[in-house]
Every structure is written in C-alpha cells, then in structure tokens.
Write a structure and sequence with these properties.
Elements lengths: L1 H9 L6 H10 L12 H13 L3 H25 L4 H13 L1 H8 L3 H21 L6 H11 L9 H5 L7 H12 L3 H8 L4 H10 L10 H12 L1 H17 L5 H21 L13 H14 L5 H25 L12 H10 L8 E4 L2 H10 L7 E2 L16 H4 L5 E8 L2 H17 L3 E15 L2 E14 L11
Parallel strand pairs: 1-2, 1-3
Antiparallel strand pairs: 3-5, 4-5
Length: 479
C-alpha cells in the first residue's frame, strides 16, 4: 500500500480519461450517471473531500481497496483449505499481478466491484468450511454494494443458486437484498430517459462501430491482465481442476467453476461479438486461489514457479512498461495520462482566464481532463460536432445555455501516429464546424504535449472562439 502511495504522490502518470471523467462526476454527486452506477463518483468525492482535488485525492481509496483486496484473497484461500504458505502467496499475487497493481493505482470501477465479488466468494467458501448451508443474506449484501460499482456483480447468483436448492426462501430474500444496490441507478435513470440501460444494451450489441468478434484479442488481453506466466499457470491449474473435479472439496470445486465458467463463457461470446478485456475480470480472485492450490498443495509441488510468476508479473507491469516508454515512446502505455500539465501551461500562455473564459471539446474524455488540469478546475463543456453518442455531459447544462455571448477555447488532442496524419485536415474541419456556433473562430496553433527529440508523441490544436451563439447542436440519438 505504501508503494502505491509513493507512486501516486511522485509519479509522472497523471489521471487517465476515465479517471478524469469520474472526477467530474464527483463534483456533481448524484444517484447515478450515464454509463456507470454512482459508487466510483462517491468514492472519489470522499477522497477529494479529505485529500483535496489532486491525483492523490482521486486515487486514495483505490489504494485502500487494493490493500483489502489482497487481504480478502488471503482469507479466501485460507477458508478454501489452502495451506498458510499458499494463502500468503494468494494475497501477494493478487496485489502484484497487473490487475492488482492497476486497481490499486488508478481510480477505476473494477477494484470496488472486485472487492465485493471476492467478499461474496468468501461467504460461500466459508459456509463450505463450516459445513453449513450457504448464507444468501450476506451474499446479497455484498452484491448490493458491488452493484454500486458495476452491474455484472449480479452474475454471482448464477454460480451460487445451485448451492441453495434446499433454502429457497432465504435465497429469495438474499436476492431481494442484492437488488437494493440498483435503487440509486434506477432513481437516476427514471429521470434521465433510462440512459444507462440504453447505453449498456448498445454496448452489449457491439457499440456503434464494427460489430465483429475478437476472440484472439480477448485472450491476449487476459494474458496481459494476469501476466503471461500467471496465465500459463492458470491454464495448468484449470487442466488439473478438470481432471480431478469429481474428487475435489466443495471450496476448490466452487473456485474452479467461477473461474473456468466465467472465462469460457466470455471467450465463447468473443467468437461472435466484441468483448472488452476487463468484462471477465471477476474470474481472477478465484483463479489465483486455483493457481496457489496447484503450486503449493498438490503432489509435485512447483513452488519455484510462483516466484517466477511473481517476478515476471512485476517486470511485465512496471519495468517493461518503463523500458518501452523510454525506448519506443510511441508504445508508451501511459501516453493518455501525460501531457496535461503542458496543455494547461499552453492555455495560460494563449490568454485563458478561468474567470472570463471557458474550455470545451468535442470529446467528453478531453473535456473531463481539461476540467481537472486547467487553471481553476472549472468544468469544461462537451460540444458534439458530429453524430457522437451521448455521455454524462449531455445531461448537464450546455455551452449555449450558460455561455451565450462569451469567449472560450476549443481543444482537440490526439496521440501518434494519428496525430501527424489527422491534424492538417482537422484545422479547416474545426474552423468550419465551430463557425456555426461562434461569431469568430481563431486558430492558435498545434502545441506539443509529449515530444521525444523530433518525434511528436502527443499534441493539441487550440482555437479561440468568440461570442458563443444561441444555436444548440443536433441532439444525438446514439447511446
């Protein structure tokens, strides 16, 4: 936990687009938001209230959640009957695999969701150890909390209901308790045309781009999330689990069902449509228990492999990323998190004054980052210039409603290699598009945000737009 605290305080890794977006949500706390339940905004809101509107404030609770996630993995492995050494390494691998490192460093919805999922798994496994019926009330409680972060937590009932055949009434009560986690989002959606549900359904249908399968890229993303060595060990553990499943204790059988079932279902779906890499992330707490069960507590112990897995995981997620960032800057995995302080300085140099001007973009991610890093931390605006899907900014007061007759700065940001090919066409494109909404559009230039030698890795186009007209943009029908 201390390691990640130091990384946040002294790192050059600034907020990413999603983190900045969630921060803007936290500045307007509500019962729900366009694409996610309210948990991440509440989490960031508390953190920034305590530690200020800084990267540390935004990410502070991620560190706490990551710490407890590792502790829960230790407890889960122990309750599943693993030895003390295997349980210890379960917690260590959870903390230092890519999922654990990213979840403890970045303010994302996955870590809060994963914490609640793991706690629900612990309830089931503990019942097995005590030779008791599964307790659906506590499971419902953890699922309700997890639903404040991500709705896929409800998939947990699929793995649990088969163990509740003799306790139907408590199972129904537990399920009803879990539905309480939906109430905040339902309340918000009732007043916003069911936007979140429309967005989720559009995403499940493949979004608004090409609806194609991505089986191999999905598998590749799982290898990255767990690290190559640990993923290989997981495949080995699943093979052992399948071979012995009829002889396994209930706790290990349950861990295997959750892991193997989740990953298999996601991989099969990826054969027919695009599946995001983190959609099956809930498979990995029980996956790590399976790995340590095979490595430590089965005949032919392979304890040395776990040290290789641990070491390569650290190398893969930290050292390798830093090496690639310095030698091949265009491959820098953190380029989306860099350059924003330089952009703030450039805006200041071009005369931006938060008391007299405003900032806006045609991408909600850029608008979010401008909101956090520009002087004054005033919320920027989203102006849809093309048929772009709705987002949270679509449900806040618009530019035309609040800034009629005023001057603002429009910003377009892009990374290499698209930057070099796209920006010459974007200059006349934006001058023409913005001219509909402003009396005068002044192009201020292309400013470098990340540069290594003569190679421009990230840059921004800045336009000064005078006298905002009361002409609303076309409302998108896309979710």
């Amino acid at each position: 936990m201390a390691i990640f605290s130091i990384c946040i305080l002294f790192s050059w890794i600034l907020l990413g687009p999603d983190e900045a977006q969630y921060w803007t949500w936290s500045q307007a706390l509500d019962w729900g938001y366009y694409s996610k339940p309210p948990g991440i905004a509440w989490q960031i809101g508390i953190g920034t209230k305590i530690f200020g509107q800084t990267e540390w404030g935004v990410r502070s609770f991620s560190i706490v959640f990551g710490f407890f996630q590792a502790l829960l993995l230790y407890e889960l492995a122990s309750e599943a009957g693993l030895s003390s050494r295997a349980s210890f390494w379960s917690g260590i691998l959870m903390a230092f695999c890519p999922i654990g490192i990213i979840g403890s460093f970045l303010a994302i919805t996955d870590i809060g969701f994963l914490l609640c999922w793991t706690a629900a798994c612990l309830c089931v496994v503990r019942s097995f150890r005590k030779n008791q019926e599964v307790q659906p009330h506590w499971i419902g409680f953890w699922i309700a909390l997890g639903a404040l972060f991500k709705w896929p937590v409800y998939f947990f009932w699929i793995f649990t209901f088969p163990y509740m055949r003799r306790i139907k009434k408590p199972a129904i009560i537990g399920f009803c308790i879990s539905l309480l986690g939906l109430l905040p989002s339902l309340w918000w959606n009732m007043h916003h045309h069911w936007a979140t549900f429309r967005h989720v359904f559009a995403t499940l249908e493949g979004g608004h781009g090409e609806k194609e399968s991505n089986f191999f890229s999905f598998i590749g993303s799982q290898i990255v999330l767990l690290s190559p060595v640990l993923f290989f060990l997981l495949c080995f553990a699943c093979q052992k689990w399948i071979k012995k499943k009829s002889l396994l204790p209930p706790s290990i059988a349950f861990c295997g069902i959750v892991t193997f079932g989740s990953l298999t279902a996601a991989a099969l779906l990826a054969c027919f449509q695009k599946i995001q890499g983190n959609w099956a992330i809930f498979a990995y707490p029980t996956a790590i228990v399976l790995i340590c069960w095979v490595l430590f507590d089965q005949p032919g112990k392979r304890i040395r492999l776990v040290t290789w897995g641990f070491g390569f995981s650290l190398f893969f997620t930290v050292i390798l990323a830093l090496i690639l960032s310095s030698i091949y800057p265009q491959w820098n995995p953190f380029k989306h998190n860099q350059g924003w302080t330089s952009l703030s300085e450039e805006l200041d140099w071009h005369g931006y004054d938060p008391e007299r001007h405003y900032l806006f973009s045609d991408k909600y991610q850029t608008a979010s980052l401008l909101s956090f890093y520009a002087k004054g931390q005033k919320r920027a605006y989203f102006l849809p210039l093309d048929n772009i899907r709705k987002n949270q900014f679509s449900y806040w007061p618009s530019l035309q409603e609040e800034r009629k007759g005023q001057t603002g700065y429009f910003v377009w940001v892009e990374n290499a290699p698209k930057l070099e090919t796209d920006y010459p066409e974007k200059i006349p494109f934006y001058q023409q598009k913005l001219g509909k909404f402003f009396e005068n559009v002044e192009y201020l230039g292309l400013v470098p945000l990340i540069q290594k030698g003569n190679f421009l890795i990230k840059g921004a186009l800045i336009f000064r737009c005078h006298n905002c007209r009361e002409i609303p943009p076309n409302e998108s029908s896309l979710y």
